[in-house]
Amino acid sequence: MDNTQTLLGLLGTGPSYGYDLKHGYDRFFGAEKPLAFGQVYATLARLLRDGLIDLLGEQPGGGPDRKRYEITELGRARVATWMFTPDAPEPLLQRNLFAKTVIALLLGDDAGRLLDGQRAEHMKRLRELTAAKRGADLIKVLVCDHAMFHIEADLRWIDLTSARLTELRAQVAGA
Amino acid sequence: MRMQLHEPAGPLLSGRDLRVAFGGTEALRGVNIDIHAGEIVAVMGPSGSGKSTLLHVLAGVLKPDTGSVTYNKVEITALNEAARSALRLSDFGFVFQFGQLLPDLTAIDNVTIPLMLSGVKRRDALRQAATWLDRLGLNGHGDKLPGELSGGQAQRVAIARALVTAPQVVFADEPTGSLDSLAAENVMVTLTELARATGTTVVIITHDPRTASYADREVIVRDGRITAGQSAEALRL
Ligand SMILES: Nc1ncnc2c1ncn2[C@@H]1O[C@H](COP(=O)(O)OP(=O)(O)OP(=O)(O)O)[C@@H](O)[C@H]1O
Ligand SMILES: [Mg+2]
Description:
The complex is a heterodimer.
Chain A: H1 3-11, E1 16-17, H2 18-29, H3 37-49, E2 53-58, E3 67-71, H4 73-84, H5 94-106, H6 111-133, H7 138-163, H8 165-174
Antiparallel strand pairs in A: 1-3, 2-3
Chain B: E1 13-22, E2 25-35, E3 40-44, H1 51-58, E4 66-71, E5 74-75, H2 81-91, E6 92-95, H3 107-117, H4 122-135, H5 151-163, E7 169-173, H6 181-198, E8 201-205, H7 209-212, E9 217-222, E10 225-229
Parallel strand pairs in B: 3-8, 3-9, 6-7, 7-8
Antiparallel strand pairs in B: 1-2, 1-4, 4-5, 9-10
Bound molecules: adenosine-5'-triphosphate and magnesium ion.
Residues 51-52, 173 of chain B line the site of magnesium ion (MG).
């Protein structure tokens, strides 16, 4: 999953300190592996350099936690592009898709649309694999089938998540 | 992309602003859809979203409350029941999920039904039915009753029955719903290969992505509306 885009997306909900950002991230995405502080600050420095976020004045006292960051228009556009560009179907896609879905809900954006976009991308790949199986030898057929089962697993997750968006929106809002 | 030498043909089947309510339940809430000749289209979406209702409306089985269905430049929603019934018999074939074969008739007699209804003589009907059973790999099963066939075999008999009249459009509602993966794949390979070879248009409802992947494209029905799906991009024209 793309931590840079996810942190930028979280900043889209309002200005924040690095410390709060890390905890916001961990709440949704850090269940298995919390984000390291070092990674948060390195990412923020990069986003700042690229003009995707701004510094909102510094509190006296020094130290990284005194800095408050705000997303820029450029940053918002970057988040929207990330959310609504379907990923290539491949194993372990699900975490990035989950991050996009949660960020879309946090930003009040159309999470259903990004899931539909991803579904279309997956169906396209499934059609390609079905076409590749036509007339192929059994070895090739079985290789295609293996890829197809993974895509089907993603699709089931997409369908289930689509059906539960209202519920998920409420949970994310209350988190 | 091939150059269009003639005026573009336009869709074979199209629905405009289709609305259907059953009492207080709005099954279709303004559906627009275009299906081109020779296309294989999968209709997907959650249970209760209106897929079967849409299929019935497109096939002229059910009249929508508002909106129109045009098939081959004829507005079928303006036809009376007798005319629609004649059209279904001559131009459409149907495959349903289960309970569709008449249990007291043999497989081959089931396949002859639509031919006999169209006035084909029994002897000719039997000959044509036998040809289709062969094509579907059911050689030697023609004299069995539906209860003596496996699920996949029965499904293939149903496909033979849907194709025996050489329909322009086949409508299929969950044709692989009760089958295991391999049987479902065999049914889909058979159905789509025959359809592509004959240029038959197929509209197929399925909740199974693998079944849908035999289609050229899919449309998603949600809450009585088409919410997503690929446009003409994937057309094989
Ligand atoms: N004859 C009927 N009388 C009353 N309500 C109906 C009738 N047919 C369908 N409905 C309702 O219309 C809605 C759409 O039904 P439809 O059968 O089209 O759904 P579907 O998408 O085919 O679902 P499934 O995947 O479960 O087959 C449902 O809420 C259903 O209860
Ligand atoms: Mg149905």
